[in-house]
What we know:
This protein has two domains: 34-147 and 321-387, Periplasmic binding protein-like II (D-Maltodextrin-Binding Protein, domain 2, 3-Layer(aba) Sandwich); 148-320 and 389-432, D-Maltodextrin-Binding Protein, domain 2 (3-Layer(aba) Sandwich), CATH 3.40.190.10. It is an alpha+beta fold. Helices cover 44% and strands 16% of the residues. The longest helix has 22 residues, at 2-23. Strands 1, 2, 3, 4, 7, 12, 13, 14 and 15 form a nine-stranded mixed sheet that branches. Strands 5-6 form a two-stranded antiparallel sheet. It has a two-stranded antiparallel sheet with strand order 8-9. It has helices at residues 2-23, 48-61, 77-86, 100-103, 118-124, 127-133, 155-160, 170-180, 205-215, 243-252, 271-276, 289-296, 334-344, 347-357, 364-367, 374-385, 394-409, 414-432; strands spanning 38-44, 65-71, 93-96, 108-109, 134-135, 138-139, 142-154, 182-183, 189-191, 234-236, 239-241, 282-286, 302-305, 318-328, 386-387. It is globular. The chain is built from 18 helices and 15 strands. The chain crosses the membrane at residues 7-27. Keywords: Membrane, Transmembrane, Transmembrane helix.
Amino acid sequence: xxxLQIAIxxxxxxxxxxxxxxxxxxxxxxxxxxxxTTRLTLWxxxxxxxxxxxxxxxxxxxKSIGITYVKKDPDTYEQQLVDALxxxxxxxxxxxxxxxxxxxxxxxxxxxxxxxxEREFLETYAGATTDAFFQSQKxxxxxxxxxxxxxxxxKDFFASEAIALPPKTWNxxxxxxxxxxxxxxxETIIRSxxxxxxxxxxxxxxxxxxxxxLQGGGSVVDQKTHRVTLGEGRLVNDLKVNPAESALxxxxxFARRSKKSYTWNNTxxxxxxxxxxxxxxMFVGYASNYDKIRKINSHLNIGxxxxxxxxxxxxxxxxxxxxxxxxxxASRNKTAAWQFIKYLTSTKGNKAIAQSLNLAPSRRDxxxxxxxxPVPSVVYESALRAKTWYDPNEMxxxxxxxxxxxxxxxxxxxSTAISEADKRINNLIxxxxx
Length: 434
């Protein structure tokens, strides 16, 4: 009898021990979490691999937090998010581009100043991101990464033409494009010197034209006042010039058959594909295209450099796109969500994500690194130099720029095309802020 009691006693202790170990996650149980009291969900479109390490590290630091990342299809993401938030089934946190800020401002919980002040925000993150996610003296999102425009060039083609270095100015870019262009005996372009000039097969056309406009001293929409300035000129040596008109003329000349600079037409695929297939010697595109090129042609001798500038320019200006992470106004765990986002964009978290995506981090302390390989060095440098403009609707404005560019190729004057684009962008802003 005594032996039976001892056995029962030992068995009871063993069972209790097993239950405790399961509860604390030491051994797996049937869906029982290891002390998790707060569950957070994050929606976005970047790779889950990029976030896995950071989420794991944070949950190790705070075992009361459980975080789930849900990767969404970029094509349907915004509508799914809107529907989910409207039905009360939305995530606690979500990623968004700058153009979503005004569109979904009412769905956002602003970051509490006790977690980060205005000064901390502006001093921590690069200018291209702070312009995007700091509105009305409030932090609406913390930036996750920066994807700057860079110049891709084929090193073998350059060597073949005895061109030692990539172009630093747009005049050099034009000259090198002409030297690198190859035509058949029938004058058909078989290799483009530079993927420039159209919109139908150049997704970044809007960004390239707006970049050249900014470099020329112009702007598209004022970041603070949201006033459309695309059609405005400026005085240069007592002459009024329109930087947007100069940019538009320069860009479209690469697609005009009557011009010596003619090197691009609708027979080519998009710049990434054309470059990877060695059908184009240069193109201006986002740094994120590097991995796409490598997947198509792993043996290509790729050069990556900062985008060209105007000669004797007082400022070196680039352009970039970025993604921020914000908290849903409907979340029941707003403070916990913002605390995680702050960790996500901390030095450790931001570095891990940027390295996983092969993009530039959003933090100034990380962008200040100089002991980098050649490609990351260019990407980081370009991210710091990037300027942006207030874009009320990325897709709609891209179509407006496409109409502006294509219309000049079919006879519309530059001034008329720019004036029409100016009005249409202004209408976008009015519709967003009636």
